[in-house]
Amino acid sequence: MAITNQILSKVEKSRNEMRKKGHEKTGGRTKGTPNKSTMETREWIQAIVDKSRPQLEKDLEVLESKERWQVIERLLQYITPKMQSVEAKVDLNNLTDAQLDTLISELTRNL
Q1: Is residue 71 part of a domain?
Q2: Is residue 61 in a domain?
Q3: Rounded to an integer, what distance in angstroms lies between the CA atom of residue 80 and that of residue 99?
Q4: Is the CB of residue 68 less than 8 Å from the CB of residue 60?
Q5: What's this model's pTM, rounded to 2 decimal places?
C-alpha cells in the first residue's frame, strides 16, 4: 500500500508540473518553419518530374484533348494556390442614396 501511495503521489506531482494551457511554446520547430520530411519529399517529387518532363510531354500529346486537359487540371492543383470564397454581408437599408449609387457604379463598371 505504501508503494501504491508513492506512485500515486508521483503521478499527481507530474500532473501538477505539466504545462498549463496558454503556456508559451519552447523547443521544436519555430512557427512557419517547413517540416523537413515534407520538404525532402517535395524536392524528390520535383526531381522526378523534372527528369521525366520530356516523357510526360510526349504522353500528354498522345491523349485526346479532353483527357489531356483533365490531367493538366489535376496537376494544376498542386502548383496553384487554392482560392477561398469571400462573402460580404452588407445591409443595404443602412446605406444612403449616394452610397448606393457608388456601390452600383463600382459593381457595374466593367460590365
Answers
A1: yes
A2: yes
A3: 37
A4: yes
A5: 0.39
Q: Which domain holds residue 72?
A: 54-80
Residues for the chain: how many in total?
111
Instruction: Classify residue 73: in a domain, yes or no.
Output: yes
Cell of 86: 469571400
Q: By C-alpha distance, which of 86, 85, 84, 63 is closest to 74?
A: 63
Q: What are the residue ranges of helices labelled H in the chain? A: 2-17, 36-62, 65-76, 97-108
The pLDDT tens digits of the residues spanning 27-39 come to: 677 777 777 788 8
Q: Taking a C-beta distance cutoff of 8 angstroms, is the pair 35, 29 a contact?
A: yes
Amino acid at 39: M
CA distance 64 to 61: 8
Give the contacts of 35 (CB within 8 A, at least 6 positions apart). 29
Total tally of structural domains belonging to the chain: 1
The reply to whether 72 falls in a domain is yes
Residues 6 or more apart whose CB falls under 8 angstroms from that of 71 comprise: 60, 63
